[in-house]
Fold this protein.
Amino acid sequence: MLRRRRKRTGLAMQNDFAKPTKIVPRLPHPALPGADWADCYQIAVGRSMRADEAARLVLGRFPYWVKVLITIRDALVAPFGIKPSTAHKPGDIDMIGIFPVVSRSARQVVLGFDDRHLDFRAVIDVNERDGRTFVSSTTLVRRKVLFGKLYLMAITPFHNLIVETALINLNRAALNPQP
């Protein structure tokens, strides 16, 4: 049985296929001035939004496979005394997903924490340009010891995939808001 395809036009069609673009991050960055590693991805989204909404859509709702990877990560780093993803509790501090909020404004949310091996920040920025809304996700890391360098090298391919997926999911959620 053949299914009819619904014709899609305009911004909805463009954004269905939108992929994040890797852009050059700004270093030094005020969110983590001593960062020695950074990356940044940006995507145009289908509607205007505040940074805290974008941060919740990017970092607050991971797909199942990401949750599995985080569980594996927690088990692998436990013997080294690295904080697990459950180290911070939502009742104790302001959090989005598994990340503590460091600062927030209408256009930017900074999340992250410091650990023995590295300091980490995720910066979600929302900017309006030429009548379009762009959301960027910048990851900043200050590696403190050799283990921090090895850890970052090992997780970077997973990190890249997770960030790209999270931004694509943000765009889908922006186009199809849930009540």
